[in-house]
Amino acid sequence: MARLGLGTAALGRPGYLNLGHGAELGEDRSVAALRARTHEVLDFAYEAGIRDFDTARSYGRGEEFLGEWLRSRSPEGVTISSKWGYVYTAGWEVAADPPEVKHHDVETFKRQLEETRANLGDWLDLYQIHSATRESGVLTNDAVLSAMVESGVPLGLSVSGTSQAETIDAAAKLGIFTAVQATWNLHERAAGDALARSGLKVIVKEGLANGRLAARDAQALAVALAQPWADVVLSGAASIEVLRSNLRALETEPVDEPGLAEDSDAYWALRSSLAWN
Predict the structure, then answer these.
(1) Burial class, 138, CB count within 10 angstroms (exposed 0-12 / middle 13-18 / buried 19+)
(2) What is the superkingdom listed in this entry's lineage (predicted)?
């Protein structure tokens, strides 16, 4: 069975599109409060056996908070991944529009890699293109791909949208990536076959469909963990309470519910309509 990991998308910034995120964070969403919360959740996760931690340049201060925790704790046996390609533009505001902007050009890669290295140092095990899509053209951009290979960092990509399968197939053919991070959950299953044939390490994100499956979190995550092609399934918990509930997936018998599957176009249309917090 796959391992449960922890993503920091909901920990590193005061606003996110997970349903219930605002209530989970509480009233104090200052930088100091979220830093303390992040370190507490990371401590709890590590003590519970989680060893895979994922972040991104666009997760507000998520990379910074994770790097601080790593330097202060020096945890053994962890695998740290981050992502480049989005720029956080919210300025610590919840209602900022847009909260992040995609930039898949070579200049952004080089700048963000240096920023990531400053935050994570030698802890960085995997650097992923954030939300690679056919439309962004990043997988056919020779300047970007060459710069990524020349960086010497193990490379991966995350994918999103209705073209996940197509993007995964295209990335696998390039032969430069070791891992792919994709959305797969009880509602959205379209990427499953492509993940199975990719030959890449598979990291599952949004296993709870941005909170839509929170009421059945252990069961939903258990089904994702049971997929034969899955290596790591990320929890997006922003509190110890929610992470404790997510961890029950490791002891839950996976029982699939095929009737929950949705049309991919409808799923992504609904996701794009979710409000931050």
Answers:
(1) buried
(2) Bacteria
Structure tokens at 58: 């666009």
CA 5 to chain centre: 10
Predicted confidence (pLDDT) per residue in 21-39, tens digit = 999 999 999 999 999 999 9
Which residues 6+ apart lie within 8 Å of 115 measured at CB?
57, 63
Contact (Cβ atoms closer than 8 angstroms) between residue 5 and residue 55: no
The H or E element that residue 67 is part of is helix 62-73
- Mean pLDDT over the full length of the chain: 97
**Environment class of 55 (CB within 10 Å of its CB; exposed 0-12, middle 13-18, buried 19+):** buried
Model confidence at 92, in pLDDT bands (50, 70, 90)? very high
Strands 179-183 and 155-159: parallel
pLDDT digits (tens, 9 = 90+) for 223-267: 999 999 999 999 999 999 999 999 999 999 999 999 999 999 999
98 prior amide bond cis, ω within 30 = yes
Q: Looking at residue 95, what is its pLDDT?
A: 85
Beta-bridge mates of residue 53? 6, 80
Domains of the chain: 3-273 (3.20.20.100)
Say if residue 1's pLDDT is above 90: no
